[in-house]
Design brief:
The longest helix has 19 residues. The radius of gyration is 25 Å and the shape is elongated. It is built from ten helices and eight strands. It has 292 residues and is of the alpha+beta class.
Amino acid sequence: MKITATLVNELRQKTGVGIMQCKKALIETEGDVEKAIDLLRKQGAAVAAKRAGKDAKEGRVYLVETEKRAVAFELSCETEPVSKNEDFIALADLAVKVISEQGITSVESLLEASADGVKINDNLQDVLVKIQENIAFRKLVAMDRNDSEVFGIYSHMMGKIGVVTKLAFEGTPSSEEELKRVAKEIAMQVAAFSPVSVNREGLSAETIEKEREIVRAQIMNEGKTKPEFVDRQVDGRVNKTLKEMILEEQEFFITDKNPKKLSVKDYLTSIASSLGLSSLKVVDFTRLERGL
């Protein structure tokens, strides 16, 4: 069958794939447009395999909040312009829609989920064929809340970093809007200062011991401390390091709201009373940064 320019253009309009790829697909399928579409979609997997070794450190972190669940996910690509491509954005929007409407808790469940009868993974393959880059849903973290908890949502630098925090409270807040604002401020804290745990209980013994070993080696290399005082110096330096790693112990970062330089934990305690609550504390957070 003769592959006409009209036929190639029809396939190109339906798929968004380049002229030469469309022509080649039509030749292989003897001019059958529907079979050519299927072929191009199948080739998406080949594109993914071919590009899998390429660094995909661009893209964007997206945040989705429903009544009882918050989800952060990363859609990655190789180059920054692709993250602004309409097909990339449409794929992300479709993922947001599915996450908002279905019980998505992992990348695997997202890829298997369907929108309008088409799996998200099939939509991904279509985009791979069009863009010819390593594009992937790299991470997805879901968090649920109850009626005595509130989410804080914050996106930094156009999706370079996405944070979800969860605060637990006791009592009835005088202003739910103010409570949400505080939760968002804590999310901003997480974005800026990258804590690794809510509190010390969340740090593993291995993590603490590793910090002790590093600090001890630093002190011994400096050679300025008498052996009998080494343990004391180790304790002091490790304690300072842990305060930087633990969200509750970090100094709350908005200085004009924190003239007393309170820790996050103490700042939330002070805010609780102004909101008519008996307690307010962070119970969980997630921080996703593109490419990491």
